[in-house]
């Protein structure tokens, strides 16, 4: 049997991603033929709003889709088995804009539609790229924070954020510091955090200062909004110090001079420690030695390193991907959709809507039998 | 009676007619656009496909091939709601037409052939 092909369209947040993926049901081999992405970046100090993001996706849908087809080198769209699109979770308007484009393609080319859960897309992509067959999954992005393990054809949520996502916490703190959103805020926070280590000729001249932030793990769950609030207060204190020093004043005795570098370092160390803790507990429960990190925050090297230390202590290892697959993309939607399509799953055309809330454990994982 | 209530509660009306080159494309546009429900309870809309231009006179006798015009009737409680709904429809319609223009199978085939 020849490999099957699918086109995946992702637009649940500020990235529009379209790609072509193939999967061979006989050999279980997956191949990526194209992975095109266009990101909407708002100016420093601002976030992306649904209306502007939806307009971005509409404006770039045709060019991104054409490039994805061209790069894939498919002779005809009829070679595809299905059009996969992100059904949710995500922002309503950007999801809907992308779905309208996907629907039109499916009708024009006479293909089936497959609505995909965004989180399941991340997990399946991560499993294929890293080869981790049955890991505990930490799914961390700007909109989601979940610790997940597979059991009996569902990806079960062991723990999750009680308020905002970890990526949202970091993105919004980047806004507080007016850090650019390009290529993405978390990357720029990570680079700034690295500068908290002052090095000259390989010798550390200054250790970074770990400032005081709350640590909010509650059982298997986490909370990030209070941490963001506390970090914002520290940033305000830093600005007061800036103003005081600029006007010739001096700090009170014993008062620590706060820097943006130390703030970024502190925020990363605190929230990643929380994530490592709940992931470790899930691994202990499940008895798994593999941990797979997916989602946009998953390409943070500091998080990968901390997770690696923990996994090594448990005699296991961490599986992570780079930004091509970690950050939202079309192929992860194409892959998860194609796996479902192979088991007979179709999204009837009149049901090919989107939903902002769509939990990971709502999806029947019919393609896994372990 | 029901129709009278409708006119009373949703007095602001706009009917948009979008002619397409073929019945197939008109049907694709209708199917793509009518799936997503209107978000506001203050707006109602009805999608139909009608015979277009010179074929319009054929009325009920028009052949399926002559049904090339997408007609959308919007009704809203206020002009503001009507404007918001119609603007959003136009944005979506624009995307659908753009996809048809650049990604339909015959367009891609013609490009592949000429390159």
Automatic annotation (TrEMBL), chain A:
Cofactor remark: Binds 1 divalent metal cation per subunit.
UniProt: a divalent metal cation binding residues: 118, 122, 139, 328
Required cofactor names: a divalent metal cation
Domain of life: Eukaryota
An example Gene Ontology biological process: tRNA threonylcarbamoyladenosine modification
UniProt KW keywords: Acyltransferase, Cytoplasm, Metal-binding, Nucleus, Transferase, tRNA processing
Compartmental location: Cytoplasm; Nucleus
UniProt keyword Repressor, yes or no: no
UniProt family annotation: Belongs to the KAE1 / TsaD family.
Name of protein: N(6)-L-threonylcarbamoyladenine synthase
Organism: Apiospora kogelbergensis
Lineage: Eukaryota, Fungi, Dikarya, Ascomycota, Pezizomycotina
From TrEMBL, chain B:
InterPro entries: CTAG/Pcc1
Gene Ontology terms: cellular component: EKC/KEOPS complex
One GO-annotated biological process of the protein: tRNA threonylcarbamoyladenosine metabolic process
Domain of life: Eukaryota
Family statement: Belongs to the CTAG/PCC1 family.
PANTHER family assigned to the protein according to its UniProt record, in alphabetical order: EKC/KEOPS COMPLEX SUBUNIT PCC1 FAMILY MEMBER (PTHR31283), EKC_KEOPS COMPLEX SUBUNIT LAGE3 (PTHR31283:SF5)
Entry protein name: Uncharacterized protein
Gene source species: Apiospora kogelbergensis
